[in-house]
Design goal:
With 223 residues, this protein is an alpha/beta fold. The chain has one domain (30-45, 75-222): P-loop containing nucleotide triphosphate hydrolases (Rossmann fold). It is built from 7 helices and 10 strands. The strands form 2 sheets. Strands 6-7-8-3-9-10 form a 6-stranded mixed sheet, sandwiched between helices. A 4-stranded antiparallel sheet has the order 2-1-4-5. Helix 3 packs across helix 4 (115-128) and helix 3 (100-110) runs parallel beside helix 5. The radius of gyration is 18 Å and the shape is globular. 36% of the residues are buried.
């Protein structure tokens, strides 16, 4: 599903090149559950953003479902993203002007899902996340944990084939965090959804079938 070959990304400040990622090679099959770990600044989020097509890179090749992402036009890349990927951000990225219901509904609008079908899907996911009572509230009226749940609900609403999660339980209490990880596990094992998560938590990382350790922008080891 994903093939990264010799991926490097750097920033140049005052003529000095600083590598964010250096010569990363990584293959991920459909249906895998991967955890990416490493200290702050090791390149975890940068790698996730490149896989999620939110960020470019300076060197190397990226194949996603046999498409050369680095050669695609922006429009085509955007279509691939909408068709395949659900992204759970650490910073929520909810739209302030939209209610909880409208935020969750947004990915379905991009996919031109019929109104009645949209309503049924959103109602189902509001129920699953136990946030039916919050559907008419705006993000500013929610706690951090509630915003995180809405962000996760929005990422899952369009039934993506690939979920990218950046510290998905970072703002949740331990019970909520465990429920979200169990939900990811179920999606992976029963629905075959490919999951790549960035986490500092050893406990969350253990949900992955493979753990990739990054250090200073390089893959240090795999287990």
């Amino acid at each position: 599903m994903i093939d990264l070959k010799h991926i490097s990304k750097w920033i140049t400040v005052g003529g000095v090149r600083t590598f964010l990622l250096k010569d990363v090679n990584l293959s991920i099959k459909e249906g895998e559950f991967i955890s990416i770990m490493g200290p702050s600044g090791s390149g975890k989020s940068t790698l996730l953003n490149i896989i999620g097509m939110l960020d470019g890179f300076d060197e190397g090749e990226y194949l996603f479902v046999h498409e050369a992402v680095h050669l695609l036009k922006e429009k085509h890349r955007s279509q691939l993203y909408k068709q395949y990927i659900g992204f759970v951000f650490q910073a929520y990225h909810l739209i302030d002007e939209l209610t909880v219901y409208e935020n969750i509904e947004t990915p379905l609008l991009y996919q031109s899902v019929k109104t009645s079908e949209r309503q049924a899907i959103v109602a189902d996911i509001l129920d699953r996340f136990q946030i039916v009572g919050k559907k008419n509230l705006f993000p500013s009226q929610l706690s951090g944990g509630q915003q995180q749940l809405v962000g996760i609900a929005r990422a899952l609403v369009s039934k993506p084939k690939l979920i990218l999660a950046d510290e998905p339980t970072g703002n949740l209490n331990s019970k909520q965090g465990e429920e979200i990880m169990d939900l990811f596990k179920k999606l992976n094992e029963e629905d075959g959804v490919t999951i790549i998560q960035v986490t500092h938590s050893e406990k969350n990382a253990a949900y992955g079938k493979r753990i990739i350790h990054l250090l200073d922008g390089r893959i240090e080891k795999e287990e």
